Amino acid sequence: METPVGDLLLVSDAGGRLHACEYADIEERLHRLLRRRLGRAGYGLSPGGAPPSVAAAIERYFAGDLAAIDTLPVVFGGTDFQNRAWAALREIPAGRPATYAGQAARVGNPRAARAVGSANHNNPFQIVVPCHRVVGKSGALTGYAGGLNRKRWLLEHEIRFSQADNGLREENAPDRTDTALLRFNEI
Fold first, then answer.
1. pLDDT digits (tens, 9 = 90+) for 134-156
2. Residue 169 has what pLDDT?
3. Are 57 and 68 in contact (CB under 8 A)?
4. How many CA atoms lie within 13 A of 47 on its CB side?
5. Quick one: 97 exposed, middle or buried, by C-beta within 10 A (0-12, 13-18, 19+)?
6. Which pLDDT score is estimated for 84?
7. 110-115, long-range: CB < 8 A, 24+ apart
8. Distance, CA of 81 to CA of 70 (rounded, Å)
9. Which of 14, 36, 111, 159 is surrounded by the fewest CB atoms within 10 Å?
10. Is 126:23 a contact under the CB 8 Å cutoff?
């Protein structure tokens, strides 16, 4: 599936539930994460079109309807901690980046920021389970499997549309979104 930040590979089941969503230029990562979750003999992939509801939701997200991806059905299939960390990512509002410590608090273990970072590193759902919304404690853009340029683009896209749609833009704020202006969504 084509997007403004690169082609996505979607892995879904017959019911349209996502098992993975990865950038095409890092396809090996998709296979590595599927093997970890399902075992070498635990999956088979066949070419096909994206489920229409999934494709439509991702297209709406890139058109500015940021909430369109929030309810896409996903099958986590990670460890209990990874599943909780990934579910917590879906609770971070678009345009309101959180820190790893904030995500750890959402998971119920405020001291687990590094474990949350590890779970995010193994997140098989680029964009849909938005690990790009997590930034370093100082606001720095830190690791993202798709690359920091994509992370920056996604954050700026979300900030731009969330400010326009939700009246979050402050008076006299610059017209251009700068990563230094990211708002944190802490608990």
1. 999 888 999 899 999 999 999 99
2. 38
3. yes
4. 0
5. buried
6. 96
7. 112/81, 115/81, 115/85
8. 20
9. 14
10. yes
Question: What sign has the CA pseudo-torsion 134, 102, 130, 13?
Answer: positive
Is 115 in contact with 105 (CB distance < 8 Å)? Answer: no
Choose, from 5, 10, 131, 159, the residue flagged as catalytic.
131
- The single-letter DSSP state of residue 18 is E
Note whether 39 and 50 are within 8 A (CB): no
**How far from the centroid of its chain's Cα atoms is residue 177's Cα?**
20
The question of whether 131 is a catalytic residue gets the answer: yes
Report how far Cα 92 is from the mean position of its chain's Cα atoms. Answer: 10
Give the pLDDT of residue 183: 40
- State which residues of the chain have pLDDT below 70: 40-41, 164-187
pLDDT at position 49: 86
Question: Can you give the pLDDT at residue 185?
Answer: 40
Token pair in block for residue 154: 């996604």
Hey, what are 62's tokens? 């890139």
d(CA 57, CA 63): 10
